[in-house]
Design goal:
Strand order of the largest sheet: 6-5-4-3-2-13
Distance between the termini: 39 Å
Largest sheet: 6 strands, mixed
Oligomer: single chain
Strand content: 5-15%
Order of helices and strands: HHHHHHHHEEHHEHEEEHEEHEHEEEEEHH
Shape: globular
Number of strands: 14
Length: about 550
């Protein structure tokens, strides 16, 4: 007879203690604390990105704290470590807001001051531009997480520098472009400036980004990664010191004596009807002091009336200059037969000719807004008129016995725009500008730093005439040969040596460095894809092994 099974006593189920009324469940408390820590960490990262971006703006003139052009990108690269695509995009956006919020806040001065827009509208327009610029950095952060290896040398030393360079270059031309505060401009007075005739400003940006990635690799990498990082951080500076001794162009013809006129008429007075006559008389007196110089250069829109309205005055200027063997280059407004306005350079030499500004300043010389908003601006009695851009390729200026590559104000921020003129034999750069619209803000010094980079890239001297500064003569190595005192009428005298020959950047432009950036980003992205594929094969192999074992 089989023994009957013994029944085991069932364990007594103890009722779970219920939380007291109003108290938090332990699991909920853990989740709440975890969520709070995550929120605090996200806020800290955003603040660090904002501060890093603002620090980057200080790397440029006038502060010129150039090491920040390496340290700030290094901070941004580090903040992207371990982030989700959304977190990286937000960090990049905050970084961009810091850089452009501080770096281009001067735009408010021109829109609200001489532009006569109310405070709220000026602030809104500047905020919109800052937000748009920050979106480029947000896109960069998103792509860095989605496309590149999560960590390691391929990310720090190859992928992020290449991708960042491409986004900076893209920002410089997309939708007319805004290349202001490109990293390379911060290095006009360091050994890296010697790379400008070879790689241009974006090439210098690439070296700075490589340095930023190398700093991260030195902190987070191991073994040979640190060795490579140390080398990549040091070698460009040593190479720059050597390149600085290379002469890329040679003198052609005799030096040209130059006189730069600076009227320093305040913008809030200059455009008043009662000041038209005094302004013309001031420049006539300055012109009288400058006679005898081979080339006399006036600033942008030196006179407030278009050329067609001051024909007699201009004829007198022309006659006096020719009697003393001087040619005149004058920034002036002009109107064509179709009643279109141009911001131009007029040359009074063997014949009268015009160069029309091609790259116009957004929200100052043209309003990139829909037509219904422009109509509303007219109803509000706010400035809404747009200048007409001139052709991208225009004849060179022949004055002072040499060929000149002209640019008006903001368009000298586009380095590739000067290349056709250099290839056609321009021996000297000339830029007329009017940064008086922006008061005593940083823009005049940022802009002068950009102008010096153009001289470095072209390996040619630059003549620069500003309404109230910065008026200067710049040498072929970007050095300041002479500079007029700011904010007061003056005549700056000196001479420049025309130069011939094409450095590598003048021959090839930005193409080599852009291709290198594309190649670097593609190689790093490919490295991630290969690693992901290998990991997937490993997982499949493990899964197959477990299934065999279970059989």
């Amino acid at each position: 007879m089989a023994a009957s099974p013994q029944l085991k006593p069932q364990p007594q189920l103890q009722p779970q203690a219920q939380p007291a009324l109003g108290s938090e469940h332990p699991a909920s408390a853990v989740r709440s604390r975890s969520s709070g820590r995550a929120g605090a960490l996200a806020a800290a990262r955003a603040l660090m990105a904002l501060a890093g971006g603002a620090a980057l703006a200080c790397a440029f003139a006038p502060l010129q704290l150039w090491p920040l052009a390496i340290l700030a990108p290094a901070l941004q690269i580090w903040l992207w470590e371990g982030a989700t695509p959304r977190e990286a995009a937000w960090s990049g956006f905050c970084f961009g807001v810091g850089t452009f919020g501080l770096g281009i806040c001067w735009l408010f001065v021109s829109i609200h001051g001489p532009g006569l827009a109310p405070i709220w509208l000026a602030a809104a327009l500047v905020a919109a531009l800052v937000g748009i610029m920050a979106l480029y950095q947000a896109l960069l952060g998103y792509l860095a997480v989605r496309l590149l290896p999560a960590t390691g040398a391929w990310r720090w030393l190859v992928g992020v520098p290449g991708l960042w360079l491409l986004v900076e270059w893209w920002r410089g031309w997309f939708l007319s472009g805004f290349p202001w505060l490109s990293l390379g401009y911060s290095q006009t007075d360091t050994p890296l400036a010697a790379f400008a005739p070879v790689l241009g400003v974006y090439g210098i940006s690439a070296l700075l980004l490589l340095g930023g990635g190398a700093l991260v690799a030195l902190v987070r990498g191991r073994g040979y990664t640190r060795v490579w990082a140390a080398a990549l951080l040091a070698v460009p500076w040593a190479a720059g010191a050597g390149l600085g001794r290379v002469t890329w162009t040679h003198p052609v013809g005799p030096p040209v004596s130059v006189a730069v006129l600076q009227g320093a008429v305040p913008e809030d007075l200059k455009w008043q009807a009662e000041n038209v006559g005094p302004t013309e008389a001031l420049y006539a007196r300055l012109e009288q002091q400058a006679l005898g110089a081979k080339l006399i250069v006036w600033p942008e829109s030196a006179l407030t009336e278009p050329a067609s309205d001051v024909v007699q005055y201009l004829g007198q200027i022309y006659s006096r200059a020719r009697m003393h063997g001087s040619d005149v280059i004058m920034g002036i407004l002009r109107i064509d037969e179709a009643d279109r306005w141009y911001d131009s350079i007029m040359t009074l030499a063997g014949q009268v000719s015009f160069y029309d500004k091609h790259h116009l300043v957004p929200f100052a010389e043209y309003f990139p807004v829909p037509s219904f908003i422009r109509s509303w601006l007219r109803l509000m009695n706010l400035p809404s008129s747009d200048f007409t851009p001139g052709p991208a390729i225009q004849p060179l200026i022949h004055a002072g016995g040499t060929l000149l590559a002209p640019s008006v104000c903001y368009e000298d921020a586009f380095g590739s725009a000067a290349l056709p003129a250099l290839r056609r034999g321009a021996a000297v750069l000339v830029n007329v500008t009017n940064d008086a619209w922006f008061g005593h803000s940083w823009v005049r010094y940022q802009h002068f730093q950009i102008a010096r980079m153009r001289a470095l890239e072209a390996a040619r001297p630059l003549i620069r005439a500003g309404n109230d500064g910065v008026s200067a003569l710049v040498g072929a190595r970007g050095q300041v040969l002479a500079q007029a005192p700011e904010f007061r009428p003056s005549v700056l005298r000196g001479s420049v040596q025309p130069r011939a020959g094409l450095p590598p950047f003048a021959l090839y432009g930005n193409y080599p460095i852009v291709v290198l950036g594309l190649l670097a980003a593609a190689l790093a992205a490919g490295r991630r894809l290969l690693a992901s594929a290998a990991a997937a094969r490993t997982r499949r192999g493990l899964s197959f092994g477990f299934s065999k074992a279970s059989e």
